[in-house]
Amino acid sequence: SQTIHQWPATLVQPVGSPLSLECTVEGTSNPNLYWYRQAAGRGLQLLFYSVGIGQISSEVPQNLSASRPQDRQFILSSKKLLLSDSGFYLCAWSELGSPLHFGNGTRLTVT
Amino acid sequence: QKEVEQDPGPLSVPEGAIVSLNCTYSNSAFQYFMWYRQYSRKGPELLMYTYSSGNKEDGRFTAQVDKSSKYISLFIRDSQPSDSATYLCAQGEGSSNTGKLIFGQGTTLQVKP
Predict the structure, then answer these.
(1) Which chain B residues are Cβ-neighbours of A44 within 8 angstroms?
(2) Spatial separation of the C-alpha atoms in residues A29 and B89, rounded to whole Å
(3) Nearest Cβ partner of B44 from A93, A98, A102?
(4) Which of B102, B103, B105 to mutate: most A Cβ within 10 Å?
(5) Is A57 in contact with A7 (CB distance < 8 Å)?
(6) d(C-alpha B36, C-alpha B63), whole Å
(7) How confident is residue A105, by pLDDT bands cut at 50, 70 and 90?
(8) How many angstroms separate the Cα of B104 from the Cα of each of A21, A25, A39, B26?
(9) Which residue of B has its CA nearest to A94?
(10) What is the pLDDT of residues A67-102, one digit of tens each?
């Protein structure tokens, strides 16, 4: 069966510091991978998705970037964090015709 | 107008009650519909998904889609305290990229023993 791992679970970072969140998926090949963000009291917003190694699509302009160095690895990064980057970041995967499955998220607080 | 409207609640019901959760959407291009359950500080977990109008049942849960009215519902029968969570509706357009979803804000449900 497929599993998704996301770490760390919580992170507190100062403004202006870099960010790297990592996500890996097991039990599947060539999945579509996604980064969503959930702000307090709001629904989930799609940030990036990837349909293959090195292929990244950005859904909203922002201070973040994403990379997919390996088939089942998806990384969310920032060179300099802003206060507005605080939120709950969720990695997710899907396959053709199948619904989306989420990891357990990283709660990021920028101070 | 938001693409998806969902009453945030909170909704509080006694144990054993029938719960009705609802979303309305504006984009007629949506082709598939999902409900996720999210416990505090956890990722959303998929409850139900459907590609068509009508009802889909799974145990105590029934998802209902009315494409003509752009209205989707989730019914929970015999609600339990363990059903206390936030419920998110989600919609998508194409089967080729089923992860590009538009989510509602989520409805917080509390089931009291």
Answers:
(1) 44, 88, 90, 101, 103
(2) 28
(3) A102
(4) B103
(5) no
(6) 11
(7) very high
(8) 25, 26, 13, 12
(9) B99
(10) 999 999 999 999 999 999 999 999 999 987 788 999
Rounded to the nearest 5 degrees, what angle is found at the Cα of B54, between the Cα atoms of B51 and B59? 90
Q: What is the pLDDT of residue B95?
A: 62
Strand B11-14, strand B107-112: pairing: parallel
What single-letter DSSP state applies at residue A53? T
Per-residue pLDDT of A14-71, as tens digits, reads 999 999 999 999 998 899 999 999 987 678 999 999 999 999 999 887 789 999 999 9
Instruction: Give the 3-state DSSP-derived string for B18-37, with helices as H, strands as E and coil as C.
Output: CEEEEEEECCCCCCEEEEEE
Q: Which residues pair with B23 in a beta bridge?
A: B6, B72
